[in-house]
């Protein structure tokens, strides 16, 4: 049995459609009236959008119901599904904690509430009956002010027992006017030993080379091998890993055909740049991580050797995997031990 590491999954897009619809039916009369039948909700929730910005608007639908009171409900079901249906051994869950605090509070009050959200997510993720190693990545957001993003970095530093890294989200086409500010925040994070990733080079309008040196992993990054392959040697030298989320690019209109990813994988493997295959928003896509691997194999975008390399890369580049080996190697060694020594 293959065991997987998921390095790029958003809390806001992780809730599968059926569970979200049931929640609305029980607790949100407005949305229950809007979607009285499940098929219409699933079609709305999982259909492809024309742009990344349009796609990201769906996150607001979920962020509004992922409160301090409801997060344990959603996370328990997330962990259960990840263990039973996806064979996940490791999961990094990313989100912007500020956007899970009450909108009616002042900015200062919402910042103060973020620590509570991180603690709730951390405790809810520790489900003993479904033993997955979990950690959180806190997302700075392109549409939040600097002081809030700075507070998110500080929170990552303070909550090391739950948080393994910071990220930058909100649409990579919205960073341009704030690059100096964002670089300063990344420098601040790295000076405190915080791991870093960031959504960049996902879309043609999100190519910001000045951010690349500050990232240990690159969220998506497909435009580098597609449009800027001259950057690949620098990525290989820095040991950076791309977090590739195949279904996302069809859902956001970034790619027209999955087959376009073959160039991404071929050029990265040739240059020695690691790739971790991820889901991004498993609920929005109604897709699970093993299917992403299977789909790439079915369309001959990768072969089995490359698939295994991506599986190994995910554990090697995981920020909080506590072992020196991926679980498959550990399990193989255990099964080969003589019975008398067990």
UniProtKB/TrEMBL annotation:
UniProt organism field: Oxynema aestuarii AP17
Family of the protein in this entry: Belongs to the metallo-dependent hydrolases superfamily. Adenosine and AMP deaminases family.
Name of the protein in its database record: adenosine deaminase
CDD domains: ADA_AMPD (cd00443)
UniProt key word rRNA-binding: no
Residue span(s) of domain Adenosine deaminase: 5-320
GO biological process, one term: inosine biosynthetic process
GO molecular function, one term: metal ion binding
GO cellular component: cytosol
Enzyme class (EC, first level): hydrolase
Keywords assigned: Hydrolase, Metal-binding, Zinc
Pfam families reported in the protein's UniProt record: A_deaminase
Cofactor(s), names only, from the UniProt record: Zn(2+)
EC number(s) from the headed UniProt entry: 3.5.4.4
């Amino acid at each position: 049995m293959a065991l997987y590491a998921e390095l790029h999954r958003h809390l806001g897009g992780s809730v599968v459609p059926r569970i979200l619809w049931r929640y609305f039916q029980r607790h949100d009369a407005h949305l229950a009236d809007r979607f009285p039948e499940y098929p219409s909700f699933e079609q709305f929730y999982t259909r492809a959008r024309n742009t990344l910005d349009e796609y990201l608007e769906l996150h607001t639908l979920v962020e509004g119901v992922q409160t301090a009171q409801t997060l344990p409900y959603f996370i328990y079901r997330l962990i259960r599904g990840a263990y039973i249906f996806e064979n996940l051994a490791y999961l990094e869950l990313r989100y912007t904690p500020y956007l899970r605090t009450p909108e009616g509070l002042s900015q200062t009050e919402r910042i103060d509430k973020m620590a509570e959200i991180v603690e709730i997510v951390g405790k809810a993720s520790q489900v003993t009956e479904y033993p997955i190693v979990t950690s959180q990545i806190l997302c700075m957001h392109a549409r939040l002010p600097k002081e809030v993003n700075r507070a998110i970095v500080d929170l990552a530093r303070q909550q090391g027992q739950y948080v393994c890294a910071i990220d930058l989200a909100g649409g990579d086409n919205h960073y341009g006017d704030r690059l100096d500010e964002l670089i300063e925040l990344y420098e601040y994070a790295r000076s405190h030993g915080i791991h870093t990733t960031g959504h960049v080079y996902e879309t043609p309008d999100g190519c910001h080379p000045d951010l690349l040196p500050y990232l240990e992993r690159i969220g998506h990054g497909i435009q580098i091998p597609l449009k800027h392959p001259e950057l690949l040697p620098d990525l290989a030298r820095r040991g950076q890993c791309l977090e590739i989320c195949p279904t996302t690019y069809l859902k956001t209109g970034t790619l027209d055909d999955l087959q376009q990813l073959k160039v991404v994988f071929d050029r990265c493997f040739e240059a020695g740049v690691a790739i971790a295959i991820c889901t991004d928003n498993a609920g929005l896509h109604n897709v699970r991580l093993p299917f992403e691997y299977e789909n790439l194999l079915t369309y001959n975008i990768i072969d089995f050797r490359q698939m295994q390399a991506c599986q190994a890369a995910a554990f090697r580049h995981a920020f909080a995997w506590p072992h020196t080996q991926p679980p498959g190697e550990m399990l193989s060694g255990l099964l080969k031990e003589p019975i008398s020594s067990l």
